[in-house]
Amino acid sequence: MRIILKIIMIIILVLLVILDVWIVKNFDYNTERAGVIDKNENFIIDPIYWSIDGEDLQNGYKYLTAKKVDFIGETFQNIFLDLDGNEQNASLKAYFNMKSNDKYFSENRALVWDEETGKKGYVDWDGNLVIDYKYDFANTFKDGYALVCMKNEDGERKYGVIDLEGNEVLPCIYPKLNMKDRGYGIFYYDEDDKTIILNDKNMKIGEIDTENNKYKFTNFGDLSNLGELEEENVRFSQDFIIIEDEDEKYEIYTKDGKRANDIKYDNVSYRTTYIEKEQYLLVEESGKEYYIDKNLNVVADRQMFRKEKGLIINYISSGLLRVRDNSGLLGISDLEGNIIIEPQYNTFVNETTYSGYFSVRQGHKYGILDLSGNEIIKPSDKYKDYLIGNGEYFVAYVTNTKLATMWEAIFILSNILEICLLRLIFKRKKNLVVNN
After folding, report:
1. Phi and psi for 56 in degrees, rounded to 5?
2. CA–CA gap between residue 33 and residue 404 (Å, rounded)
3. Residue 94's pLDDT is what?
4. HSE of 207, CA atoms in CB hemisphere, 13 A
5. Among 47, 165, 214, 412, which one is most buried in terms of CB atoms within 10 A?
6. Residue 369 and residue 36: Cα distance in Å, rounded?
7. pTM of the predicted model as reported, rounded to 2 decimal places
């Protein structure tokens, strides 16, 4: 009997040790939670959520998408919050009209359906029906477009594309649409042994031979004169169509197919700022390397920064440059090369300039700077991730003190029980020796 009891105590001891290891390994995972703070670092929404979407704040949405979890971070619940911390606000009529897997807003639109007809439409954050119930199938919005479907008289599904206001970008007449380049206003559908290329004006601008992946633009400005092109030599961007010619030089064409200028570039790459939807091209030409904007104006000379400032332009947004020094630290410059913020940070989240601030990381510390480099929220290690918001309020990830106290108490209690078990196991062992 004593041996059985001893074995039971050893098993319990091992389980407690495993629990201790699990707590230590998962302590941050189980105690970090998201809330919303103001500029004075006061929580206006308590940090009790697994996640809150900071981009909802950036985009000015009335409600924030959030997730709640149980105390070990396993069971998820999708909810919406207003800035008073109210969950599932009653005015959010859409919330109650959607199936559980459809409770999702994208670009201030949520997919809903009419219970009587089964037709689908879209509502905004306040539950206002902004796109009427008329589609037999619909997807969530992305890049300002959504794929929708209506059945014809024969019951066949025909697909089209709508914008955020419900305007038909492409009418519902296509058997199937490929949306891979929707962010650039380009769409595709298959027809026989070729793929047709459409633009966001519902114009056929070209086709792809699916057998050999050859592009050919048709009735589309200067691009129509280029003949067949290799697939890898055609690139769409937000403002341009970029073509690599037989000499491995790059030509820039506008979205209506016209040659943008006479320059043949040695290389072209592009960067889009996701919030502002600005796009800049980084081009190399005759040994020069510089950024141009959507009007093809030179906005920053990358080589000048490297030679005269010893800095590399790392990103461009809102007329500001993120620059990196030789040590890898980041700062901010204007387009002329005047340093606004000396390189001293590990990361600048440049997309936040849209809301008039920088979210920064300095080592393991996160904070907020204004566009002149003044500290709005001093970088601190109490924040566990980038602070993202609208310039007034920010989503902040911190250690939830109540959860931390609970897990610390469980850890301490587990250690006490382990000590007690060790004493009992040791005592019994000693008694057995004496009795023998």
Report:
1. -60, -40
2. 11
3. 47
4. 12
5. 47
6. 17
7. 0.73
The position carrying tokens 């298959």 is 190
Per-residue pLDDT, 272: 54
Residue type, 269: S
CB atoms closer than 10 angstroms to residue 208: 19
CA distance to 45, 250, 258, 290, 380, per residue, from 269 (Å): 41, 10, 19, 11, 36
Residue whose C-alpha is closest to residue 109's, from 129, 134, 80, 89? 129
Tokens of 208: 């792809």
Beta bridge partners of residue 360, listed in sequence order: 348, 367
Q: What is the pLDDT of residue 199?
A: 94
Contact indicator for 106, 142 with CB cutoff of 8 Å: yes
- Three-class SS of the chain: CHHHHHHHHHHHHHHHHHHHHHHHHHHHHHHEEEEEEECCCCEEEEEEECEECHHHHHCCCCCEEEEEECCCCCCEEEEEECCCCCECCCCCHHHHHCCHHHCCEECCEEEEECCCCCCEEEECCCCCEEEEEEECEECCCECCEEEEEEECCCCCEEEEEEECCCCEEEEEEECCCECCCHHHCEEEEEECCEEEEEECCCCEEEEEECCCCEEEECCCHHHHHHCCEEHHHEEECCCEEEEECCCCCEEEEECCCCECCCCCECEEEEEEECCCCEEEEEEEECCEEEEECCCCCEEEEHHHHHHHHCCEEEEEECCEEEEECCCCCEEEEECCCCEEEEEEECEEEHHHHHHCEEEEEECCEEEEEECCCCEEEEEECCCCCCCEECCCEEEEEEECHHHHHHHHHHHHHHHHHHHHHHHHHHHHHHHHHHHC
Report the distance separating Cα 435 and Cα 241, nearest Å. Answer: 91
Residue with tokens 């809102």: 318
Residue 377 near residue 394 (C-beta atoms within 8 A): yes
Place of tokens 């998820």: 76
Max Cα-Cα span within the chain: 103
**How many CA atoms lie less than 13 Å away from 239 in the CB half-sphere?**
17
Which of 95-109, 276-290, 311-325, 338-352 is predicted with the least confidence, judged by mean pLDDT? 95-109
Q: Among 82, 84, 93, 89, which Cα is nearest to 56's?
A: 82
What are residue 402's phi and psi, to 5 degrees? -65, -45
Q: How far is CA 242 from CA 239, 315, 382, in A?
A: 10, 21, 46
**pLDDT for the residue numbered 98:** 45
C-alpha 321/C-alpha 333 separation (Å) is: 5
pLDDT at position 104, please?
65
Sign of CA dihedral 419, 421, 422, 424: positive
Beta bridge partners of 142: 145
Check pLDDT > 90 for residue 424.
Answer: no
